[in-house]
Structures are given as C-alpha cells and as structure tokens.
Amino acid sequence: MFCYTNALKIFETASFLPIQIIKHIIHKIAMSKRNKTIAFILLMGGILFTLPSIAQSKITSDYPKGFRLGLGINGGLSTNSAYDGTIGAEARLQYDLSQKTSITLSSGYTHLFSNEVGDKGIVPIKGGFKHFMNKNIYAMGELGAGIGTHQEQGNTLIWAPSIGFANHIIDVSLRYERYNDYNTDQLGIRVAYGFSLKNYNKKKK
Q: In a 10 Å sphere around its CB, with 0-12 CB exposed, 13-18 middle and 19+ buried, how is residue 8 labelled?
C-alpha cells in the first residue's frame, strides 16, 4: 500500500535520487487505484518542493530568473490502443531557475480520435521540470491530471517525458504521454512559439 509514511521516507532522499524516486512513485500509482488521489497529491508536492531545490545548486547569480510563455500545437499517434490519433493545443508558462533548469505549468486541449470506441476530449493540467543538456537540447518530465470533456468520460492521471530543441522563439519536442485511467497513450510532436516575459517586464519599468 502507498501511504504517507512511505512517501515521506522516499522524498527524504530526493536530492540524491530524483529520477529513481519519480519512477518508483509512478509505479505505485499505477498499481493502486484506491490510493491514486493521495499518491498524485504527494507526487506533485514532491516535484514542486524537491526539484527546484536540486536546481538551485546549479543557479548562477548573474542569470536573470523569470517567466517565459509558449503557445503550441501538438499531434500524435497511440502506440497500443483503439485510438487512431490525437491533436491539440496548449499554453505553457515556464519559470527559469537558471540557464539550464526551469519549472513549467501547462494546460490546453487534446482530442483523441477513434472510430471504434468514440472520441475523447481532455483538458490537461500539468506541472513539469525542464533541464537543458546543452545550449538548445533539453529533457523534460511532466505530471498532472486530465479533465474529461465528454459525458461519462471521467478524469485521468497524465505523465509525460519528452526531449526537445528550443531557442529564444521556437520549441520543438518529441513527447510520450500516458493517460493512465483511459488505458491509452500517444507518441507525439509539439511545435511552439515562445517569448520571454522578463524582457516585457523590463520594458514596462
């Protein structure tokens, strides 16, 4: 059983083993439907509190922290379900902790197409952690919830690792996204236009 005590013990070592911890907790969520809500809350809290602290050790004092906004479209294909494909759009708010690390908050709309089981609509709300491996190439992990828009569709847990290329205006990424409660997924591409709100705030001043 996935309980608060076990979760707290896990997150005590988050500064040393963040990737293994996230995998461990996601596995627990998938194995226990009864405690899915509790597990989700603990996991989101762990990400919000432990990953920024990891990133802080790499922050340079001269890099201007602040927000960026990205507006993108995405599409993909399911790897193992009755859904034929997906298409969607999303907005992503990104806060740069350093030149290499950022935290994100994303939402939008994703439509799943299927002639067999009927279409589904999802409004995803995801938090994420983004790390640049060099100037333009990054790896990212996101976790959140999907709110169903169709009658009797219900909601779902979402987790999504991705790898991408970004510069000061363009962000292109390859993403695997899993919708646990719908028993489906997608392997897709996201293309976005982004701009810095840090520069906008400077101009206002």
A: exposed
Q: Coil, strand or helix: which one is 47?
A: helix
Q: What's the DSSP call for residue 3?
A: -
pTM above 0.85, yes or no: no
* Tens-digit pLDDT profile for residues 27-56: 554 454 445 555 555 555 555 555 555 545
Closest C-alpha to 130, from 92, 178, 88, 181: 92
User: One-letter amino acid identity for 21?
Assistant: I
Please check whether residue 142 is in contact with residue 162, taking contact to mean a CB–CB distance below 8 angstroms: yes
Of 195, 202, 178, 193, nearest to 71 by C-alpha is 193
Beta-sheet pairing, 137-148 with 85-96: unpaired
